[in-house]
Design goal:
This protein is of the alpha+beta class and about 210 residues long. It has five helices and eight strands, in the order H-E-H-E-E-E-E-H-E-E-E-H-H. It is elongated and about 65 Å long.
C-alpha cells in the first residue's frame, strides 16, 4: 500500500522529534528527559561527540562498559560518572603479525601497571612498546559521561579518538593466557625443567 505525502511528512517529523529527544539534553542538565519513546542499542565503540539513552536494564550500560580503554576520573558532580580514554599501547617498530595485523595492546588502568607495561617487549617482534595517548578532545583525552536517571542511563561522549582501537578486554585476556601457556612450556621454563628432571629420575620398568 502506497503512503500518501501527508503520511511521509508525519513520519519524517516523528523521526526528527525522536532525534531531538535524544540529543537536546546535556549530561549536566539539572533534569534529564523521562518521556523517552525510543532507547538506543548499546554502543561498544562510541566515538566523536555523541549521546545515547539506554535502558536502566541494559547490563553493559549498568557496567559503564566500553571497548576503549577508559578509566574513572575525578568529577565534582557525584551523580555523573566521568571516564577518560588512556589511548593504546603500540609497537615502536610498527611491526605486523603474519596475518597483517598491527599490535594495538590495551593499556593497563593503573598508572604503575601501565608504566611497567611499557617496559615490556612487543609480543610479536620483541621490540619496545610505547603508549600512544588519546588527545582527541582539544589536546586532552576523550571523555565519557554516564548518569543514571529513573528508568534510563544517559551517556555522553566528548571528543573523537585520534588513535587506533585497542584490543578488547576479552582479546587481551586471551592473549595473556596464550603467553602464559607458551612461557610455561618453553625450553627455558623452570616448570618444564622440573618436569624433565622428574622424568629422568623415574625408574624405567623392565
Amino acid at each position: 500500500m502506497l503512503k500518501g505525502a501527508d503520511d511521509v511528512v508525519m513520519e519524517q517529523e516523528d523521526s526528527a522529534s525522536r532525534r531531538g529527544e535524544t540529543t537536546s539534553w546535556d549530561i549536566n542538565d539539572i533534569e534529564l528527559p523521562q518521556d523517552v519513546r525510543q532507547i538506543d542499542w548499546f554502543q561498544e565503540w562510541p566515538d566523536s561527540y555523541v549521546k545515547h539513552i539506554y535502558s536502566s536494564e541494559d547490563k553493559n550500560a549498568q557496567r559503564h562498559h566500553s571497548s576503549w580503554a577508559m578509566r574513572n576520573t575525578n568529577n565534582h558532580n557525584s551523580r555523573i560518572l566521568k571516564k577518560s580514554c588512556l589511548g593504546v599501547v603500540v609497537c615502536s617498530n610498527d611491526c605486523s603479525t603474519l596475518d597483517g595485523r598491527k599490535i594495538y595492546l590495551r593499556p593497563a588502568i593503573c598508572d604503575k601497571a601501565r608504566q611497567k607495561q611499557q617496559r615490556k617487549c612487543c609480543p610479536n617482534c620483541n621490540g619496545p612498546l610505547r603508549l600512544l595517548s588519546c588527545r582527541g578532545h582539544g589536546g586532552y583525552p576523550v571523555t565519557n559521561f554516564w548518569r543514571h536517571e529513573g528508568q534510563f542511563i544517559f551517556f555522553q561522549s566528548k571528543g573523537a579518538h585520534d588513535h587506533p582501537r585497542p584490543e578488547t578486554k576479552l582479546e587481551a585476556e586471551a592473549r595473556r593466557s596464550i603467553q602464559k601457556a607458551q612461557t610455561a612450556f618453553s625450553p627455558s621454563s623452570p616448570r618444564l625443567k622440573r618436569i624433565q628432571e622428574v622424568e629422568v629420575t623415574l625408574p624405567i620398568d623392565q
